Amino acid sequence: MNREQESEIFLDWLFNKEEKIKPFNLIINHLKEVYLSDKERLDSISFVKDSALVI
User: What per-residue confidence (pLDDT) applies to 53?
Assistant: First the structure.
């Protein structure tokens, strides 16, 4: 990737931030809804070599 491409990507994120983060917010909101709606759930945590997952 050259400098011009990096600048285009940066400007795209700068001026279209809401559009760019919308998919992430949809996923986060969905996860919140599922988590809060399920009263009987199994909570668990898993630690692997370089990461962790909390369910």
Answer: 65
